[in-house]
Amino acid sequence: MDARVAPVAPLPRFDPRQVPVVAVDTQLPAVPLQQLQPTALRRRFASPPIWLPETRIELPFSRRGATRAAVLIALVNRPGGLSVLLTQRTDFLPTHSGQVAFPGGKVDATDRGVQDTALREAHEEIGLAPARVNVLGKLPLYVTGSRFVITPVVALVSGTSALHPNPDEVADVFEVPLSFLMNPAHHRHHRLQWDGHVREWLSMPYPDDVQRAGGGPVVERFIWGATAGMLRNLYRFLVA
User: Fold this and answer.
1) Partners of 74 in the beta sheet?
2) Residue 52 is assigned to a structural domain of this protein
3) Which of 6, 98, 99, 177 is the most exposed, having the fewest neighbouring CB atoms within 10 Å of its CB?
4) Full domain range(s) for residue 195
5) What is the pLDDT of residue 209?
6) What is the pTM of this model?
């Protein structure tokens, strides 16, 4: 593993929404809508460009050993365009509790590979049947500050069957338009000084106005950290 993953003092509990925004990438171009269509995405993954991910290793904040994992970046085909399927993790999970995340988890010994891990975890977490998933390809490894070595698996999802979140892991399931996430005008940079290190990350807050049961106000989906970092790498892959 890279020397940059040497153990450091753990981060304190904090609200990432309160950490100052130091920049917003309004100067970068959005991915054109025609490149966010299923056919165009299939072509891009079948013949990928030469490109570099923006983030591969986060500054660590855990002394735990590295753990292999995989997540599913599931793109759902909706009338208004593709959307990204995301979850809100429950508040009592041991790692990344309460955060917005992709379906995914640790690689099991019985998994045939990281793709199998991503599909299995998506089925266990939110009830997404593997038969509905058409894998396009993978993005480069992403190492989180909590020492998960993640392979993001990108896939198209067909059908509109209801999902069934596991209440022990998932508090909510929602979708964000891919066009919103692939527009850097919505990418905000945060910076925090801790334990002698400057820590930086992205956030992509999305105002979700989908009416919930019983009505209620617009919900802000605060996408940040590793989830935002992997989405940023997807952006770099699509504009390369």
Assistant:
1) 155
2) yes
3) 6
4) 3-7+19-239
5) 82
6) 0.91
